[in-house]
Design a protein that fits this description.
The chain is mainly α. It has one domain. It is 79% helix and 0% strand. The chain contains five helices and no strands. It is globular, with a radius of gyration of 13 Å.
Amino acid sequence: MKNIIWFMMFFFVSITVFSQTIDYKELAKEIEQNNLALDYKSSIVRLHRIISDKNSENIDKSNAYYLRYQLFKRLAIYSEALDNLEEAFLFGLKSVNRQQ
C-alpha cells in the first residue's frame, strides 16, 4: 500500500511540469495560508470550485485533488484523503494521455 502511495505522489509531482491554466504555486500558497489560519472550509470550497469547474483542465483537477488529499490527511480524515489521492492520480493520467 505504501509503495502505491509513493508511486502516486511521485507521478503527481512529475506531471506538474505540463501546462496548467491555474498557477499551482500560488494556489498551494493560498491553501497553506488558509490552513495555517485554521480556515479549512475556505480551502475546501476553493478546491471544490476548481474540481467542479467544467473549464478546468485535467492537470488543474489533479492538482486540486492532491491539495485536498494533503488537507484531509492533515485533518486525519484518511479515507477521504486516499480517495482524493486516487482522483489526483486518475486525472493526472488523463492529462498525460491527452498530451500524447
